What we know:
Layout: E1 7-13, E2 18-23, E3 27-32, E4 37-43, E5 49-54, E6 61-65, E7 70-72
Antiparallel strand pairs: 1-2, 2-3, 3-4, 5-6, 6-7
Amino acid sequence: MIKKANFHGIGISSANLQLVACSSDQFAKQFNVSKGKQLREVELPDKEQFDIVVDSTKTKFALMGADQLNRIF
């Protein structure tokens, strides 16, 4: 569970009720909203995230950071 209010971004996939959230703790967390479960957690190399894209197949999400690199998880 994310316990901080300092979010860098939230990405939502309405097709499968999942979201990805990034906060100031440098972790991206993926949740299944309908089940209330955290699916995975990824430590981010970059503290500043500018954009999150969630794939509708439930398997991937992409983050773009201050270093202007896209990372796919």
